[in-house]
Amino acid sequence: MPKKIIIDTDPGQDDAVAILLALASPEDVEVLGVVAVAGNVPLPLTERNARIVCELAGRTDTPVYAGCDKPMIRPLVTAEHVHGKTGLDGPQLPDPTMPLQAQGGVDFIIETLRREPPGTVTLCPLGPLTNIATAFTEAPDIVGRVAGIVLMGGAYFEVGNITPAAEFNIYVDPEAADIVMKSGCNITILPLDATHKALTTRARVDAFRAMGTEVGRMVAEWTDFFERFDKEKYGSEGAPLHDPCVIAWLIRPDLFSGRHVNVEIETVSDLTRGMTVADWWGVTDRPKNATFIGDVDADGFFALLTERLARY
Question: Using an 8 Å Cβ cutoff, are 140 and 34 in contact?
Fold first, then answer.
């Protein structure tokens, strides 16, 4: 029985690959909708990019919604320096023709969780947690109906990628992340500690290109584009494909390992704002509230990704 999911996202090349992986895997996940949030680039671009990706997948039946255009209380910080001015820089893409849904993304999340049976909808945030936290704040009754939250964000041993202490998705809206971490939901976190082990080597990108399909070519060109930033920054042989790890965890949790620990978000300090403080070693008595993934079988992850994307 496929898991019902809502993808909450700020595409981003790696977000695009995550959406493609989900839409290629109907036996494992049923995408009820894709909700855009401001993050990697502003909302008018993220909602546009989400529609472009659904069209690329041939899935214009997947409803796309626009969520929050800025964090809960802070000005928006974006990442064009990584993803390019459109958020999907690399290959030229046609303008989307499928419509944006008239309903707001936060209302869609609330309505869906109220409509579907309790414990059947999993939220999959791939960007800042603004939409999820706003939905929880506006409609506290939905929190107990969520099956789980599987999110890409944070870091502990890998510390920060936008400041010395903070990972981008959490840093953009730490107040939202704090609300989500304290929600009591069943939370699984795919942090940089795991995603930095899933690198796009030359052979892995060549496998996408060798599919000879439009999707294979797009994914290869997107990874070519955004890996240049991480290669330069980390001196690694490729770039991490962060967001597809969320969908891969839903399909093949056996590819990942982690610990159930306490995770808290720093919201006050100027020095470490947005830091994800994971009690990996169990040195506090704070309650365990999240499964923090620390490792991924990279070969298994890319084998799954290549097999599913080859379906297009």
Answer: no
SS3 for 288? coil
Residue 233, φ and ψ in degrees, nearest 5: -75, -45
Instruction: State residue 234's pLDDT score.
Output: 66
Domains detected in the chain: 3-309 (3.90.245.10)
Structural contact between residues 117 and 146, judged by C-beta atoms closer than 8 angstroms: no
Residues contacting residue 285 through CB under 8 Å, at least 6 positions apart: none
Query: Which residues lie below 8 Å from residue 223, measured CB to CB, with a gap of 6+?
Result: 13, 17, 200, 205, 208, 238, 239, 241
The three-state secondary structure class of 23 is helix
pLDDT in tens, 267-295: 999 999 999 999 999 999 999 999 999 99
Which among 81, 83, 242, 260 is annotated as catalytic? 242
**Residue 48 corresponds to which tokens in the numbers above?**
């546009």
Give me the mean pLDDT over the 155-163 stretch. Answer: 94
Rounded to whole angstroms, the Cα distance separating 178 from 276 reads: 10
Mean pLDDT of 38-58: 96
Is 196 catalytic? The answer is no
Phi, psi (5° rounding) for residue 110? -60, -50
- 114 and 142 in contact (C-beta within 8 Å)? yes
Q: Are 57 and 215 in contact (CB under 8 A)?
A: yes
Q: Give me the residue label for tokens 């080597």.
A: 201
Whose tokens are 């989307």? That residue is: 96
Q: Whole-angstrom Cα distance, residue 166 to residue 54?
A: 30
